[in-house]
Specification:
alpha/beta; 10-stranded mixed sheet; two-stranded antiparallel sheet; 12 strands
Protein backbone atom coordinates (compact mmCIF):
# COMPACT_ATOMS: atom_id res chain seq x y z
CA UNK A 1 0.00 0.00 0.00
CA UNK A 2 1.32 3.45 -0.93
CA UNK A 3 2.43 5.63 1.96
CA UNK A 4 0.77 9.02 2.35
CA UNK A 5 2.50 12.25 3.37
CA UNK A 6 0.96 14.98 5.51
CA UNK A 7 2.41 18.47 5.87
CA UNK A 8 1.94 20.08 9.30
CA UNK A 9 2.34 23.86 9.71
CA UNK A 10 1.58 26.32 12.50
CA UNK A 11 0.91 29.89 11.36
CA UNK A 12 0.32 33.38 12.65
CA UNK A 13 0.13 36.30 10.20
CA UNK A 14 2.18 34.56 7.50
CA UNK A 15 0.49 35.87 4.35
CA UNK A 16 3.86 36.99 2.93
CA UNK A 17 5.44 33.54 3.30
CA UNK A 18 2.78 30.84 3.17
CA UNK A 19 2.21 30.67 -0.61
CA UNK A 20 5.94 30.20 -1.27
CA UNK A 21 6.05 27.39 1.28
CA UNK A 22 2.96 25.57 -0.02
CA UNK A 23 4.03 25.95 -3.66
CA UNK A 24 7.05 23.78 -2.82
CA UNK A 25 4.91 20.85 -1.61
CA UNK A 26 1.45 21.12 -3.17
CA UNK A 27 2.08 18.76 -6.12
CA UNK A 28 3.46 15.76 -4.24
CA UNK A 29 1.93 15.56 -0.76
CA UNK A 30 -1.46 14.14 0.21
CA UNK A 31 -2.64 16.42 3.01
CA UNK A 32 -1.95 19.89 4.39
CA UNK A 33 -2.86 20.58 8.02
CA UNK A 34 -2.47 24.13 9.31
CA UNK A 35 -3.07 25.26 12.88
CA UNK A 36 -3.50 29.03 12.85
CA UNK A 37 -3.09 31.13 15.99
CA UNK A 38 -5.77 33.69 15.10
CA UNK A 39 -4.13 35.50 12.18
CA UNK A 40 -5.46 38.94 11.35
CA UNK A 41 -4.13 38.97 7.79
CA UNK A 42 -4.90 36.72 4.78
CA UNK A 43 -3.08 33.63 6.11
CA UNK A 44 -6.20 31.47 6.53
CA UNK A 45 -7.59 32.52 3.15
CA UNK A 46 -4.33 31.54 1.43
CA UNK A 47 -4.19 28.21 3.28
CA UNK A 48 -7.70 27.27 2.18
CA UNK A 49 -6.84 28.20 -1.41
CA UNK A 50 -4.32 25.35 -1.33
CA UNK A 51 -6.89 22.92 0.04
CA UNK A 52 -5.46 22.89 3.55
CA UNK A 53 -7.44 21.75 6.56
CA UNK A 54 -7.26 24.76 8.88
CA UNK A 55 -7.68 24.60 12.64
CA UNK A 56 -8.01 28.01 14.27
CA UNK A 57 -6.92 28.41 17.88
CA UNK A 58 -5.01 30.89 20.08
CA UNK A 59 -1.38 31.95 19.64
CA UNK A 60 0.66 30.66 22.63
CA UNK A 61 4.10 32.16 23.40
CA UNK A 62 5.75 28.78 22.74
CA UNK A 63 4.90 28.31 19.08
CA UNK A 64 5.73 24.59 19.25
CA UNK A 65 2.39 24.01 21.00
CA UNK A 66 0.53 24.82 17.78
CA UNK A 67 3.08 22.88 15.73
CA UNK A 68 2.34 19.81 17.83
CA UNK A 69 -1.40 20.35 17.41
CA UNK A 70 -0.88 20.32 13.64
CA UNK A 71 1.20 17.13 13.91
CA UNK A 72 -1.49 15.46 16.04
CA UNK A 73 -4.17 16.33 13.47
CA UNK A 74 -2.33 14.69 10.55
CA UNK A 75 -3.51 11.37 9.12
CA UNK A 76 -0.63 10.51 6.78
CA UNK A 77 1.82 7.65 7.32
CA UNK A 78 4.66 10.18 7.18
CA UNK A 79 4.61 13.78 8.41
CA UNK A 80 6.67 16.68 7.09
CA UNK A 81 6.60 19.49 9.64
CA UNK A 82 7.36 22.90 8.15
CA UNK A 83 7.40 26.54 9.17
CA UNK A 84 5.60 28.98 6.89
CA UNK A 85 8.89 30.71 6.03
CA UNK A 86 10.52 27.49 4.78
CA UNK A 87 10.74 26.02 1.27
CA UNK A 88 11.40 22.40 0.27
CA UNK A 89 14.04 22.15 -2.47
CA UNK A 90 13.72 19.75 -5.41
CA UNK A 91 16.61 17.69 -4.04
CA UNK A 92 14.91 17.29 -0.67
CA UNK A 93 11.59 16.42 -2.30
CA UNK A 94 13.29 13.64 -4.30
CA UNK A 95 14.91 12.23 -1.16
CA UNK A 96 11.60 12.22 0.71
CA UNK A 97 9.76 10.45 -2.12
CA UNK A 98 12.56 7.90 -2.52
CA UNK A 99 12.45 7.21 1.22
CA UNK A 100 8.73 6.41 1.37
CA UNK A 101 8.99 4.29 -1.79
CA UNK A 102 11.89 2.30 -0.31
CA UNK A 103 11.42 2.48 3.48
CA UNK A 104 13.81 -0.41 4.05
CA UNK A 105 16.71 1.72 2.76
CA UNK A 106 18.42 4.48 4.70
CA UNK A 107 19.31 7.80 3.08
CA UNK A 108 22.90 6.75 2.43
CA UNK A 109 24.10 9.77 4.38
CA UNK A 110 26.40 8.16 6.93
CA UNK A 111 29.36 10.18 5.66
CA UNK A 112 27.74 13.47 6.65
CA UNK A 113 29.29 15.03 9.75
CA UNK A 114 26.44 15.51 12.22
CA UNK A 115 26.86 18.29 14.81
CA UNK A 116 27.30 16.96 18.34
CA UNK A 117 24.40 19.07 19.63
CA UNK A 118 21.99 17.47 17.17
CA UNK A 119 23.21 13.97 18.03
CA UNK A 120 22.79 14.64 21.74
CA UNK A 121 19.30 16.12 21.33
CA UNK A 122 17.94 13.05 19.51
CA UNK A 123 16.25 10.50 21.77
CA UNK A 124 16.54 7.09 19.99
CA UNK A 125 14.69 4.18 21.60
CA UNK A 126 15.17 1.45 18.96
CA UNK A 127 17.15 0.73 15.83
CA UNK A 128 14.51 1.28 13.12
CA UNK A 129 14.73 4.50 11.12
CA UNK A 130 11.55 6.46 11.83
CA UNK A 131 12.69 10.07 11.36
CA UNK A 132 15.05 12.19 9.29
CA UNK A 133 17.01 15.32 10.13
CA UNK A 134 17.20 17.86 7.32
CA UNK A 135 20.01 20.37 6.66
CA UNK A 136 18.46 23.83 6.77
CA UNK A 137 19.94 26.83 4.96
CA UNK A 138 19.15 30.18 6.63
CA UNK A 139 18.57 33.40 4.67
CA UNK A 140 19.67 36.42 6.70
CA UNK A 141 19.50 40.03 5.46
CA UNK A 142 20.00 39.13 1.80
CA UNK A 143 22.56 36.33 2.22
CA UNK A 144 22.53 32.59 2.77
CA UNK A 145 24.59 32.02 5.90
CA UNK A 146 27.16 29.26 5.36
CA UNK A 147 29.42 29.87 8.36
CA UNK A 148 28.98 30.86 11.99
CA UNK A 149 27.63 27.41 12.80
CA UNK A 150 24.51 28.17 10.73
CA UNK A 151 24.93 25.54 8.02
CA UNK A 152 24.04 22.78 7.96
CA UNK A 153 21.41 23.70 10.57
CA UNK A 154 19.97 20.20 11.10
CA UNK A 155 16.32 19.95 12.14
CA UNK A 156 14.22 16.79 12.52
CA UNK A 157 11.20 17.44 10.33
CA UNK A 158 10.25 14.24 8.49
CA UNK A 159 9.02 11.27 10.50
CA UNK A 160 6.52 8.44 10.75
CA UNK A 161 3.23 9.44 12.35
CA UNK A 162 3.30 8.76 16.08
CA UNK A 163 7.08 8.37 16.24
CA UNK A 164 8.15 11.96 17.00
CA UNK A 165 6.84 14.86 19.03
CA UNK A 166 7.80 18.29 20.34
CA UNK A 167 8.12 18.62 24.15
CA UNK A 168 6.81 22.21 23.85
CA UNK A 169 9.11 23.52 26.57
CA UNK A 170 11.65 25.64 24.67
CA UNK A 171 11.65 27.59 21.42
CA UNK A 172 14.85 25.92 20.16
CA UNK A 173 14.09 22.34 21.19
CA UNK A 174 14.55 19.34 18.90
CA UNK A 175 11.98 16.64 18.20
CA UNK A 176 12.01 13.68 20.55
CA UNK A 177 11.96 10.50 18.49
CA UNK A 178 10.91 6.93 19.27
CA UNK A 179 13.36 5.19 16.98
CA UNK A 180 16.44 5.73 14.85
CA UNK A 181 17.13 9.03 13.10
CA UNK A 182 18.91 9.28 9.74
CA UNK A 183 19.98 12.37 7.79
CA UNK A 184 18.94 13.79 4.42
CA UNK A 185 21.30 15.70 2.13
CA UNK A 186 18.81 17.98 0.35
CA UNK A 187 18.39 21.45 1.86
CA UNK A 188 15.36 23.02 3.48
CA UNK A 189 15.45 26.75 2.70
CA UNK A 190 14.62 28.96 5.68
CA UNK A 191 13.84 32.63 5.02
CA UNK A 192 14.37 33.40 8.67
CA UNK A 193 15.21 37.11 8.45
CA UNK A 194 14.99 38.62 4.96
CA UNK A 195 14.64 42.03 6.68
CA UNK A 196 15.98 43.38 9.95
CA UNK A 197 12.46 44.21 11.16
CA UNK A 198 11.46 40.53 10.87
CA UNK A 199 14.61 39.55 12.74
CA UNK A 200 13.72 41.96 15.56
CA UNK A 201 10.18 40.59 15.73
CA UNK A 202 11.45 37.03 16.08
CA UNK A 203 14.17 38.08 18.53
CA UNK A 204 11.62 39.81 20.76
CA UNK A 205 9.59 36.60 21.04
CA UNK A 206 12.64 34.39 21.65
CA UNK A 207 14.14 36.67 24.33
CA UNK A 208 10.80 36.85 26.15
CA UNK A 209 10.68 33.04 26.28
CA UNK A 210 14.29 32.90 27.48
CA UNK A 211 13.49 35.48 30.16
CA UNK A 212 10.69 33.25 31.40
CA UNK A 213 13.04 30.25 31.53
CA UNK A 214 15.56 32.26 33.58
CA UNK A 215 12.84 33.38 35.98
CA UNK A 216 11.47 29.85 36.47
CA UNK A 217 14.81 28.22 37.30
CA UNK A 218 14.82 26.69 40.78
CA UNK A 219 18.44 27.50 41.65
CA UNK A 220 19.38 31.16 41.41
CA UNK A 221 22.64 32.97 42.04
CA UNK A 222 21.86 36.58 41.19
CA UNK A 223 25.43 37.85 41.05
CA UNK A 224 26.63 34.95 38.91
CA UNK A 225 23.57 35.19 36.63
CA UNK A 226 24.17 38.90 36.13
CA UNK A 227 27.81 38.37 35.11
CA UNK A 228 26.97 35.27 33.08
CA UNK A 229 24.09 36.70 31.01
CA UNK A 230 25.39 40.24 30.70
CA UNK A 231 29.02 39.43 29.83
CA UNK A 232 30.14 35.77 29.67
CA UNK A 233 27.42 34.25 27.49
CA UNK A 234 27.31 37.04 24.86
CA UNK A 235 31.11 37.18 24.61
CA UNK A 236 31.35 33.39 24.32
CA UNK A 237 28.60 33.22 21.68
CA UNK A 238 30.14 35.98 19.56
CA UNK A 239 33.59 34.38 19.67
CA UNK A 240 32.10 30.96 18.94
CA UNK A 241 30.07 32.00 15.89
CA UNK A 242 32.14 34.83 14.44
CA UNK A 243 35.66 33.53 15.15
CA UNK A 244 35.72 29.78 15.76
CA UNK A 245 32.97 28.98 13.23
CA UNK A 246 34.27 31.65 10.83
CA UNK A 247 31.18 33.82 10.68
CA UNK A 248 33.38 36.61 9.33
CA UNK A 249 33.39 34.77 5.99
CA UNK A 250 29.69 35.62 5.66
CA UNK A 251 30.56 39.32 5.35
CA UNK A 252 28.75 42.03 7.21
CA UNK A 253 25.69 39.77 7.56
CA UNK A 254 27.87 37.32 9.48
CA UNK A 255 28.94 40.07 11.87
CA UNK A 256 25.38 41.32 12.38
CA UNK A 257 24.13 37.79 13.02
CA UNK A 258 26.84 37.01 15.57
CA UNK A 259 26.55 40.37 17.33
CA UNK A 260 22.75 40.55 17.49
CA UNK A 261 22.30 36.89 18.44
CA UNK A 262 24.85 37.37 21.24
CA UNK A 263 22.73 40.26 22.53
CA UNK A 264 19.83 37.89 23.21
CA UNK A 265 21.41 36.93 26.52
CA UNK A 266 21.61 40.40 28.14
CA UNK A 267 18.26 41.38 26.60
CA UNK A 268 16.60 38.26 28.02
CA UNK A 269 18.21 38.86 31.41
CA UNK A 270 16.93 42.45 31.55
CA UNK A 271 13.45 41.22 30.60
CA UNK A 272 13.72 38.61 33.36
CA UNK A 273 14.43 41.34 35.93
CA UNK A 274 11.17 43.00 34.96
CA UNK A 275 9.32 39.75 35.66
CA UNK A 276 10.62 39.45 39.24
Amino acid sequence: MESKISVAIATFNEEKNLSRCLDSVKDWIDEIVIVDGGSTDRTVEIAKRYGARVIITNNPPIFHINKQKAIDACSGDWILQLDADEVVTKELRSEILDTICHPELDSGSQTIKIPKQVRNDVNCLNSKIVAYAIPRKNFFLGRWLKKGGQYPDYVIRFFRRGKAYLPCKSVHEQMEVKGKVDYFKGDLLHFTAPTFSRYLTNADRYTSLLAGEIKDREKKNYLFDFINYMFIKPAYWFCLTFVRHKGFLDGWQGFVFSFCSALRFPVAYIKHLRLI
